[in-house]
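User: Structure with LYUYDEPV, tokens only please.
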Amino acid sequence: MAKLLKNPVKLALIQLATTADKTHNLSHARTKVLEATKAGARIVVLPECFNSPYGTKYFQQYAETLLPSPPSASQSPTYHALSQLARDSNAYIIGGSIPELEASSKKLYNTSLTFAPSGELLATHRKVHLFDIDIPGKIRFKESEVLSPGNKVTLVDLPEFGKIAVAICYDVRFPELATIAARKGAFLLLYPGAFNLTTGALHWELQARARAMDNQVYVALCSPARDMTAEYHAWGHSMVVDPNAEILGQLDEKEGIVMAELNAERIEEVRKGIPLRTQRRFDVYPDISEGKIKFEE
Ligand SMILES: NC(=O)CCC(=O)C(=O)O
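Assistant:
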């Protein structure tokens, strides 16, 4: 049987201190990514909204249309900076997420770009589940006031390693997305994300470990560093979890890099010990993934 993860790989999550200055954010991200790749990382992840502040009022102002051809570099600076960075660092770059403006529809998306070491864009993921919550006295956030949702599970084949899945922050709360990606052969689920001080302490680590435990794959969550002078206070705590839901590394709220070595043997060992994959009873619950069973109000 082919290995899910073809070669051991060092993963790095960059918990970036972001500012309101896009040019600074791009050059700072470049410095940190090169630091991680010098230390051996071949897959490097940036946080959600790594080139802008996070907030509904910022999406339009910071949005870029994704234009691959070189003359449009000035209109699509993040695309080109990440593509160049992937080439310069010889690494797969999962470019957190950025506000994207689709030229034809004028719709805005929260979008993640994945680049190969050749600089080629391998995949885009538009956040599927928009962060719309209202916890009285704590936090109200409605991405849907300005953003449109994406509509796909994003699996990316990294030829040297195997398949990863990319989704964004609030997407982690929907186990179906993770399960489908794992069933389709992902060895790693990556979530650039920016939880907050209300839900972060409660659910950030729990979500990461739950998705890893359910699917027996590696899971990584990559946050911006916390900035108490910004409007949105990110939780931080970027972390990597192994297929047994054990934490391989976790930061605090400050800027930093967390690295972890991933290998196929750990996935196989965990799956052999607790063989969920062969024990599943689709005869008992055939309808769930098709949404045929509705919530009762
Ligand atoms: N940026 C986000 O999607 C935040 C998600 C979040 O904080 C949560 O609790 O879920």
